[in-house]
Amino acid sequence: MWTDIRPAVEMPQLFERGGDLVSFSGGLPDLEVLPLETISTQLSRLIRLGGRVALQYSTPHIAGALVPAITDLMAREGAGATAENLVPTNGSQMGLLAVALGIAAPGETVLVQTPAYPGATAAFRTAGLALHPAPADRDGLDPAALRETVARLRAAGSTVRILYCNPTFQNPTGATLGVERRKELLTAARELDLLVVEDNPYGLLGFDGRTTQTLQGLDPDRVVYLGTFSKVFAPGLRCGWIAAPDPLAATLRRTTEVMALSPSALAQAALAAFHTRAGWGDLVDAYRTSYRERAALMADALEHELGTDGPWTWERPDGGFYIWLRHRDGADTGRFAEAAAEHGVSYVPGSHFGIDGEHADALRLCFSNVPRKRIAEGISRLAAAFREGAA
User: What does the pLDDT read at residue 384?
Assistant: First the structure.
């Protein structure tokens, strides 16, 4: 049976809330910044005047009215696409599976930046792909080592055609790959004939408002770009896109049509209406402010509770949603999870971000959705759990 030949793929439980739990687990955006009254008025008007279209099936294309909203977002990071290159998805998670099913073949090897977003590794495994860590050094993905790794894998008989990465405010580390290293990486990808899959949910969420040139903007013929409105608008609409090179867009469109039949015309129309009337600037700025404040509160609390010369190390983020803690002595952070639960706090152990259990000495904390007044309390609970677990 199919279930006998495909291993079970599980995602970490990220979105559990309620009671007295302080959850640092799931990457939920702060929807307090959304102008709900404005959105409600726009949705009401949209359904009243065009509901028979917005609530109907649609074609597997980005609606014409939404194209400017997408190209506006992409242009803010130096990327670009035309309507013909855009493929609708129900968020970038669907885009990951579409790429795995539509471009790769079962048994092929995909190189994955690690620690890796668990949704990406789950999608690749679901499609029957083998995973191999993409080599990295202290500056991020390492082009020279990439050449050696691909040569070795191909010499051993593996088919390697895809490199997956999340180069800006990466999930889970928060790291950003520098522009020069991006250029070197793309040069290596061209030499190796690798397709680069750029997953970019957080690129606009730099706390100081600055952005980094996307890989897609540097080499649109070499990069499949995954975009989403989940982090810059709201995840409940389940709306995203793939910007693909010409030869691949039609293939990915067929794949997404099989997966979802059609995108949500209502979600696309709602996003287009918001952009037409308000643009993205004010909303993205509001998100940046919220996350900058929460990140500072969490980093301050970590310094207060754990110190800077103890067993835990981390870096203050300058964008995104996450802080990545590592244990200097290599302790498995899964061992603290039970104590953390008893203290009413949650996190995601680092092993969830590995390919084969690596990164177990780390853990991810998400600050984006935690009420400001509970961040210090949650870190205090976490520190107590660490002390208890180490005893």
Answer: 97
